[in-house]
Amino acid sequence: MTAPAFYPIGTPGQPWGAAEVAQWRASQVRHRSYHADVVGAIERLRSRFEVVEYGRLDYAPDGYPLFAIKSRDWQAGLPCMLVTGGVHGYETSGVHGALEFVERHAADYAGRANLLVAPCVSPWAYERIHRWNVDAIDPNRSFREDSPAEESAALMRLVAPMRAEVLVHIDLHETTDSDESEFRPALAARDGKPYEPGEIPDGFYLVGDSEDPQPEFQQAVIAAVEKVTHIAPADAQGEIIGSTVVAHGVINYPVKSLGLCAGITDARYRTTTEVYPDSPRATPEQCNAAQAAAVCAAIDFALARPG
User: C-alpha angle with apex 206: 203 to 211, nearest 5 degrees?
Assistant: First the structure.
């Protein structure tokens, strides 16, 4: 039997109500600036790419414009490559890896693909280095109709007109030590459930779609990233974060039924990256480079297989 983990908000065994959510929200501290770190970087890209504001989060007293970066030479008939980052705001390399891809590599695909990059889906959480939005909702379980998370709903509205054109969707994430020290205990407390300890894998891995796994695609991305950083091994049970390892560095989830970002289109090739930034074998620069390498590998694989 698993002993309940202590969490300072709520009553063990009872889901949170409005009072507990308000208490949790009041405990959150801003650690960094979305406007300085992310919007500033996007502004520097305006001379080379189209920047669109696709929504705004009004979380009084704070407001957050939501930005996406598009190919300036968008051409009808070209496949669309969708890159998303920062769905979980605390997963830093998802945000900065997406921006690094645009800065260093996006121009290589001009005239071959239409690129759409949403680098920071959850800016309130980015500033507070948290997984949830202001209402203690996980955006990456909220990509569905009538979404309770405005971050998720705004991204779905942006993508809706081009869903049929998306060939690749790569969603950039991290698995961190704080998943076990903070976020999973908080989730258990919020939902009034017992906390079940897990094991954090040391290294990069991918989450494919169990309904359409595309194993050759997943392995092409793993091979590219392995040149930048190490790949997570399976644990003693042959699993990564409780899911069976189906190939080197790859597990699968039913992304659409779970409401995950990777399921918002019918892209033939879709995957979720998971970087491990707390590894003594990885630097922040490596983590960002691994994300960018994954994006390039995903796009290159798809472009090499027309039709």
Answer: 155
Domain span holding position 108: 18-303
pLDDT, residue 2, reads: 40
Q: What is the DSSP secondary structure assignment for residue 247, as one 8-state letter?
A: B
Q: Is the pLDDT of residue 299 over 90?
A: yes
Distance in angstroms (rounded) separating the CA atoms of residues 209 and 115: 22
**Which residues are registered as beta bridge partners of 209?**
253
Q: Is residue 12 part of a domain?
A: no
Nearby residues of 98 by Cβ (< 8 Å), 6 or more positions away: 83, 84, 85, 86, 117, 118, 119, 120, 172, 291, 295
284-303 and 215-225 helices cross at what angle (nearest 10)? Answer: 140
Query: Could you give the count of Cα atoms lying within 13 Å of 34 in the half-sphere of its Cβ?
Result: 22
Whether 94 maps to a domain, the answer reads yes
The pLDDT-based confidence of 3 (bands split at 50, 70, 90) is very low
Contact status, residue 138 vs residue 132, Cβ threshold 8 Å? yes
Token pair belonging to 275? 């970087």
Answering whether pTM is above 0.90, one says: yes
Please check whether residue 235 lies inside any domain of the structure. yes
Residue found under tokens 């069976």: 244
Assign residue 34 the CATH number of its domain. 3.40.630.10
What is the domain count for the chain? 1
Other residues' Cβ atoms within 10 Å of the Cβ of residue 65:
14
